[in-house]
Known about the structure:
This protein is α+β, with helices and mostly antiparallel strands. It is 42% helix and 24% strand. Keywords: Cell membrane, Chloride, Chloride channel, Disulfide bond, Ion channel, Ion transport, Ligand-gated ion channel, Membrane, Postsynaptic cell membrane, Receptor, Signal, Synapse, Transmembrane, Transmembrane helix, Transport.
Amino acid sequence: MTPGHYMLWAVIYFACLCSASLANNPRVNFREKEKKILDQILGQGKYDARIRPSGINGTDGACTVNVNMFLRSISKIDDYKMEYSVQLTFREQWLDERLKFDDIGGRLKYLTLTEANRVWMPDLFFSNEKEGHFHNIIMPNVYIRIFPYGSVLYSIRISLTLACPMNLKLYPLDRQICSLRMASYGWTTADLVFLWKEGDPVQVVKNLHLPRFTLEKFLTDYCNSKTNTGEYSCLKVDLLFKREFSYYLIQIYTPCCMLVIVSWVSFWLDQGAVPARVSLGVTTLLTMATQTSGINASLPPVSYTKAIDVWTGVCLTFVFGALLEFALVNYASRSADRAADIHRETMKKKRRELEQKPLVRHPGDPLALEKLRQCEVHMQPPKRQSCCKTWLSRLPTRQCSRSKRIDVISRITFPLVFALFNLVYWSTYLFREEEDQ
């Protein structure tokens, strides 16, 4: 045989070997295997989703469910309704030995379901929930994974509005603790126990942004509750929020402080400028009242005094005090005018009497001596005063200048008292904030 024939026989022999190998090792269709396994473990009459799984090692103990979650966003924290909204991915994992299956030599890691009613599910509910909904765009955001050793992982994305009772005594220098509580509705601890997953049970998205709060930290804990029907397993997450003070400093504290200072301008206006001083006092008072109403409109009516109530109340008192000060100045000015008119009339009468009597000095005449003594007093040169007496002499002391004296005293008293109030206010509430922290 020629070399060409040997080559041809070698090719034919190699082709036969390849065909025999393919016949002995057909390609495995894992999707078909998954369908057969699901039909095998979840088929009719083989699995009852109404029956809870057994305890550890097939005992009749309680079924243990490990819980963890991922906080995706916190959209709002409402002070008035005392609630907050959160979006999270919630996960539960438990062992159901009835769902064990062959993993085909480790090549089938898990089975995936999208229908939660096919397997038994824990009856967990959020005890402080007000509203909630699932996400179904584009498809329902839920899956169930069944692992070869019978472990079941349930994951779902949900949005919740939860109640958050708040203590607003230090508002807006406060910190608030909002809880997320999860409990079993019907199964007692003898049948179902919730546990936090070991390691990191709660994860928070990076760069979580809140409009007026900062999430300082969160704590996980247990909150089992006892009722007349038994004890129920409960988990909770405490979220500690710190209120951002910069917003309130710009929107509330600074405008109120400016209104108080503007009300002091009336102390420097002439006491005769009645329209200007009245307009300034009334305008600042109404603006301050409107500011206070706007602040209270965004807060719930509570029975205790808040830190912001103390601030707005004192600022409103200062503005009202400036308006009352002008009323006192106006009254003192009119009283002085009346006294001046009476004094002027008296002086006229005395002048007329002096004009009728000739100023002649008769020996032993006491009236003439007294008049002469008065003339000598008025003709004496003024004495030189010290610096302190000169400064004090600038303060009006006569009855006709009593109104000016009130204005001068108010220019000093009002700013000093307001500065003292600020010192006491900030030292008190900032110290209490540190104590709470």
